[in-house]
Each structure stands twice: as structure tokens, then as C-alpha cells.
# Entry
Amino acid sequence: MAEQSAQLHQGVRLQKVLAATGWGSRRVCEELIAEGRVTVNGEVAILGRRVDADVDRVEVDGAPIGVRPGLVYYLLNKPAGVVTTAKDTHGRPTVVELVPSEPRVFSVGRLDADTEGLLLLTNDGDLANRIAHPSHGVEKEYLAEVSGGALSAGQLRQLRQGVELEDGITAPARVSQPEAGLLRLTLHEGRNRQVRRMCDAVGHPVTRLVRTRIGPLFDRSLVPGDWRELTAAERRLTIEAVAESARQYDSPS
Ligand code: URA
# Structure
């Protein structure tokens, strides 16, 4: 009883905290709470709940949302030749050198040094783990230029249905060929060098690989080497995509 009363009087109102992270107006956030979709430290929150953004764990539809002050989310267009690891033994430039050095951020998942395109960098560990989850992370889209000319209908079907790699068969993927030797692939999995290995397996090695989308995040105007902060709406869409993906993959089939 005393605890509940404290929750109602200390901290910042939950709808205000949610609204500040991009979940919509305070009114919309009040509705989310009233619908029972918001938990604080694992308990369904009631209207009037206040939270301490530094210590309380807030989730919407089971997905943690970064409400701590100081969380940053950068969308970077990684150029080829830049490595995703924090330090490179060969002295190559790293992605963290392309964004502000404070607060310290890390990349969500990896792109090969030769791969170009979108990479998310953040200091929000919860969200990062969920996006990069190897089996139920959000879907990612790639454009791959391959050698050997046009793929046959059979080779495209193989890529879509699954190809045998040394670490197992790949999950179903969406694959199209907008022009001969150019593939658009949408994958849910995120195995090491997966697109390159899939294309190798059908006899068309990748000559250029660009990631064009991470879940709801894309930006055709971001030039290689440039970055920008996610908008509040993009943060919300990303959290929703992660929650939806986890629901899809965790539910028994
Ligand atoms: N697949 C690859 O082969 N490389 C990447 O960098 C990303 C996906």
C-alpha cells in the first residue's frame, strides 16, 4: 500500500516519459497505459503511475523502451573499408570514429568491412540486443551486385527457400532481381557474412553489398560517411518492429 502510494507521488508521470520518447501525444500514451500495454519493472502500470527514468524499466508490449536520459541513436551510412569493431588490428578506420565520441556508442550488429549501408549505433543495450538477435531480430534489406550475370528462376527460388551453408540451412527470405545480376534480399536472420555466403552457394559471388533498410529505418539521402539521429517517430517504429518480430518468432507455430 505504502509502495503504491509512493509510486503515485514520486517521479515523472509515465505518460509524460512515454510521450518524450516518441510514443505520441500524452493523450495517446494515457490510452496505451489504460489498455494495459505498459509495464514498469514487470508490472502492468496504472494511470497516474510515476517513474524514475534512471532506475525504472519501462516496457510497451513487452519491449523495453529507452527512457533513461542520455540515450542516443545514430543512423550511419557506412562506407566500404570502414570496420564495425571498436578497434581494428590493421589500423583501418572504425564506425565509431564517424559519429560523436561522447556518449560512447556501439554498433547494433555488424557489417563486413566491404559492406556499405545503414548501421545503427547506440548506447541503449536493451534495444541493441533485440534488434541484432540472430534468429528473431528485425528484418534487414540488402542490395547485392553479383558476378556471373542473371540468376535463373531456380537459383532465385533456392535463395528464397533456403540454401545449405556450413552452419545450417538459411531461413526463408524475400529475394527479387530488379535487373540482371542485381538482387534485393530481405532477411530476418543475421548470420556472419550471410548474404555473401548465400550468393556464393548459388554460384554468383557478391561484388558489392549495400544494406538499404533495418526494420523501419531507411534513408536514401544519407550519403556514405554521414549519420543522423533517429527521430522520435523512428525510435517508436523500431521498438514496435522489435516487439512484433519477437511476438511472431516466440509464438508457437
Ligand atoms: N551479409 C553479408 O554477407 N555481409 C554483411 O555485411 C551483412 C550481411
Q: What stands out?
A: The pocket of uracil is lined by residues 111-112, 115, 193-196, 209 (CB under 6 Å). The chain has a mean pLDDT of 88.
